[in-house]
Design brief:
Structural class: alpha/beta
Shape: elongated
Low-confidence stretches: none
Distance between the termini: 74 Å
Strand order of the largest sheet: 2-1-3-4-5
Number of helices: 9
Helix content: 25-40%
Oligomer: single chain
Amino acid sequence: MKKFKTVIVENNPDNLRNLSVALEFNFKNIVIADVAENITDGIISVKKTIPDLLFLSCNFPEGRSGFDLLSSLAPTPARVIMIGQTMEDAYDAMKARVADFLLWPIDMQELIASVNWVTKEQKPSRWHAYEYMLHMLNETNRITLFDSNGFHVIETGEILKLEAHSNYTDIFLTGDRKLTYCRMLKEFEDLLRQHSNFMRTHRSYIVNLDHVKSYTRHGVIKLTEGHVAHCGNSFRESFLHHFTQAGQPEESIQRSN
């Protein structure tokens, strides 16, 4: 039986102890080589032990995260199971392409299934079906957005604009609805890149071009349902080009109110 040298990086002592006990009790092939309670010690531990398996918490104090550890060690020498508190953590883990993800508090059956899956010698990614689902959604007229309660599947035609406020982004939807995410606008720009009706018009705005009603020479974009966005100088040319290509003279767009 192949032994999996394992490191656990988790800042909560109770979580650390409970996970260690659960692994030792349920798996004869798991050998806990080291534990660490912060990112700095975790990096040192992984470099020192070169584990086969790494259990890594997403959330740490003082603004650090398990993703900082992954970035510091890239490529990570171990199979990584991340453990978080929200579905947003799961989404970030998926983007980091770790082997698997679990939620605190850990369900024992989920832990057993995860370890059995990850320690298989040859296997498809556990995320494969999930990524395919998201790919299919995002290839059509829908996008999937995660929050702490789960996820929202949104028709792209419902989105009027996205507006950035520091590290947060507001998504304004038809019917006077709004969703707010603790994510940079750039992440949504990447997500919507394949949808040609969305355009970045300002460092703080992405607009749905299908909802544009008018544009003024001062850079004010008026949208349906009374919403307003802005067009920055560096985005003006591509914004106007979209409408002139559609057959509307540039001058009339600039002077509309």
